[in-house]
Amino acid sequence: MQDNLINHTKNSFRAFFQSEPERIFLAPGRINIIGEHVDYSDGFVLPAAIDKYICFAVKKTEDAEISFFAKDFNDSFSFDVHEKQIPVSKIWANYLLGVFNAIQELGKEVGGLQIAFSSTIPMGSGLSSSAALECGFAYLLNEIFDLHLNKKEIAVIGQKSEHTFAGVKCGIMDQFSSVFGKEHQVIMLDCNSLEHQYFEANIDGYSLVLFDSCVKHTHLTSGYNDRRRDVDNGKKILGEKFPEVNKFRDFSFEMLDEARSEMGEVPYKRCFYLLKEIKRVEKAAKALSEGNIEYLGELLNETHTGLSTEFEVSCDELDFMVEQTLKEEGVLGARIMGGGFGGCSINLIKDEKVNRVIENITDLYKQAYNIDMKVYKVKISDGINEYQRNEIVI
Ligand code: GAF
Fold it and tell me: Cβ neighbours of residue 370 under 8 Å, at least 6 residues apart?
């Protein structure tokens, strides 16, 4: 499948630029087992990179233009590396311009390139295609022009692009996962310090399967930034009331209750969810490493309830899908995954029941919403890398 994507991208490069690409880079999407919306609130998250990628076919040129051909949009865009860039009306181009801008602000210089890219990460499905686009571009610039950026800096550049050029005040989880992913390994990331450790997802006999509701979201127009604002309002009151506490995750539920009337019900609900979720991630990491899969499932279900009722980022279609999935035999956990407002659910299902569950939920979802849900059985994979030239299938 990876070979198909690479060949497809190479062929798009050839057709558009009428020449041969020199290097190939792959930037993956991600799943998140648990820890939703806590990455901008000093929380822990448990994501992993997956075997769905944006592939970049690249050639260095002698001029000062960086030219893109976005095969999936059948669209192109170019800019001059000597000029200061500002956001443009072409949405996909902003993710790339934002990366370039962040690199320019670091005083790093890059030259001309031709780039064709295409993707197997479904867009607007909560699998972080935008982080893969940002970080893939930052990574390839770093490799080709020897910019001496480390992996954390690449992730932060991706996040900065999202903030400044795409207008979404996201956390660091998606970019970090795309850059730091490791085959078979889940990342336990402390979003405050960016310290992280890897561990094997010990779910023998069970699979993590994604059901795509095909309800598309873009975080620019969804309530993502609003949620972040609610949380910031709550944090401000907490910070003023308890200045001795430095990190959001160190506020207790008693403190939150004391601040409730001052902060108001909406920020209270959001902060309540976040403090609970941060604790759930620690419990889930322990459950995963001990192979306590039943308990992991329970935690996923609690997260869905919290995301739906306290953080209010689910939607009817996802609530329906999760509710029906949990009625199926062999399902231990189901929840909406990622930023929300549509996209995928992540489901923890006994191996021998997977096909049956897929059949049933596909039917029920079609009957209820007349939508053909999509199913992704993903593998936990390595983060961004350059595909070795001699491995390219022509
Ligand atoms: C989106 C954001 F980009 C992430 O930073 C994170 O907040 C996630 O939603 C929710 O956990 O993917």
Answer: none
